[in-house]
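Quick question, first post here. What does this chain look like in 3D?
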Amino acid sequence: MNKKLLIIVLFAFVLVNSIEAQIYQKTDLGIKSNINSIDVEIQFYGPSTVRVLKWPEGKTFTKESLSVIKTPQKTAYSIKQRGDELSLKSESLMVVLNLKNGKVTFTNTSAVPLLNEKETGVAFTYFDDTGVKTYTVYQSFVLDKEESIYGLGQQQQGKMVQRNLKLRMVQGNTDDYIPFFVSVKGYGLFWDNYSPTLFEDSPERTSFKSDVGDCVDYYFMYGGNADGVIARMRDLTGQAPMFPLWTYGYWQSKERYKSQDETIGVVKKYRELGVPLDGIIQDWQYWGNNYLWNAMEFLNPEFYNPQKMVDDVHNLNAHMIISIWNSFGPHTKQYKELDKINALLDFKTWPESGSQKWPPNLDYPSGVRVYDPYNPEARYIYWKYLNRGIFALGMDGWWIDSSEPDHMQFRPSDFDNKTYLGSFRKVRNAFPLMTVGGVYQHQRSVTSDKRVFILTRSAFAGQQRYGANTWSGDVVASWDALRNQISAGLNFSLCGIPYWNSDIGGFFLWEYPKKLKDADYRELYARWIQFGAFCPMMRSHGTDSPREIYQFGKKGDKIYDTIEKYINLRYNLLPYIYSTSWDVTANQSTMMRALVMDFANDKQALDINNQYMFGKSLLVCPVTKPMYSKISIHDNDTINVEDFSKIKDEEVYLPEGTDWYDFWSGEKHSGGQTLNKGTPIDIIPLYVKAGSILPIGPKVQYATEKKWDDLEIRIYPGADGEFTLYEDENDNYNYEKGLYSTIEFKWDNATNTLNIGKREGNFPGILKTRTFQVVIVSPKHGTGIDATDEIKKVVKYNETEKKVTFR
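> Answer (accepted):
Ran it through. Tokens below.
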């Protein structure tokens, strides 16, 4: 080769490499590139979490996430280019960017495919958002044909696997949309956008399309399994704090207690009956007329001494939470102060009429307006009046109703409302996150002596960090509605928000005009309360008819006895439930667990929509069809009557890979099979995983009535197992300072030995010595609630390790 030719070849080589080097730019977090007039940025937030941003070239913007609070950490990764493909590899995953078409692909470190963007799957459509130049943004992906995905918030469709559907994601009363899904393949995807969003899944593509966005912005996280993904999501959007122990007891409510005497009377009646109760909820209109809507003061004369009301509840060893809303009547102090700073939105909300009568008289509009929770000053005003008017009385928690908020007689122009962060359209779905967050943050700034507890009707990604438990909205009572609550709660929990519940019995009784006189409804209520006993909050509530236990008869009546049985069972399980809640806070676990979380390799379990794990030991199968009511003619009237003459069965699938124990009988079954379980009205199919260690607490009237100094410890043999018993002061935030204790139990199945570890940690009031009554479960021992024929080993325990061997 002559010198001139060599110079030409070298020049070409340098030119090609120079062009190639300019295709992308390395940043502190990853890379940037421009491909086909679209800027692309890939950022590592950690070894397992990657953020992908895309926007039209030449566009400048500032994006501060409302959900994501994690600061990206410096992550070690390598970059390799082969042809048009640029690979970024961390210790946990690999991201491949096609420099020719912009397609992004995700694999694990062994190059096993996880998720692919669809080629040319991004789109930006110009949009004028009330004078602001922005875009409608779209991104599509390709999922495996048989790939199961979960999450997307809460819907009432009864679907477990979220494939082959179309969702218009705008927060509503009974639908909470969260643009996040987790795959059975062990990855999750969070679409970080707050505007109305269309999610579509078909065999060809899976896509998100949001009305407003300066950019495509999503996070891919790899966890290996559902627990790992949820851990990544909480790392990204915030951890779940502890609730007080009393929140896990039984709660009674209705729409509505109309006086403080009625409210106190309910608590007194439960105490007289000897039925456990930890909380009472005061619903709306304690403030008076609708022009004073949500005044956060007791202006209704039926609440003549609110301080005495709260004190009376506390003196009965119960707690109280109260209804507050996100809107204000025109005669309230809040309305006037918020109006001065332009922090009231202009669209029709509930209530529409100033009259409290039904139907509403629209000739007299209420003038109620929703406030702007995106405005930090508005959030402060909200808390200022809440603190002065109610929290100062010693109120224990908040029921933030209408946190979507209610949006009635919708007009497209309603989205043009200006909020502190732009148009209402731009931030619509994050409304509950902002209003719940405002209450949590302000209460935390005032005191750490009382843990924040918020019951709320809607949620968005990241809300778990704000001490909130979301309920499923004003569902209409029916057997289908009960069944649909199961998949709704499970998919909601799979979005990283672990605390969820429903109105036990359903809110409206529209399908039951005879109300509690209808035997079918009484049966439905009994089954719903069984389901509620295995939810993160056990709370009875509804309209059209009261739901207190004494409305269902008296002791000796089957429905009454069933309700009482499951309230008592809930309290027996409090050591298990509270320890599980610690696992949620400390280890990013989930309380209400879809079967994919623990049995991802069992294909038969992946799409079951009526069973779940409660914690990691209990398999729950609520009964969701009527068995014991039939139509009868009485006095020329068609009615439903009870018929308990024959015991019916419920079909239950036991996931493979483990053995299972019937909680009620102690009978052992192999996994991987379907069986029929006899379900008289007082029995819910409940199974315990082999290797489980289940602590059973004392019989009490409220959560903290007795210390856990004499717990029964049930061992379910057949596999090794472990359980950590968690204890603290039951309220306050001292646990964040390390003031708590744990005791680790380990079961060695080969040697039939239970190892009780040395107590770790300390806190004021800790038990120095205690007794554990250890029982090996079998058909004759350690079954049900009130087991009598049991062989136990009594272990006197202090701070040292103990070993209990069974022969």
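Residues 4-21 have pLDDT under 50 and may be disordered.
The first helix runs from residue 3 to 21.
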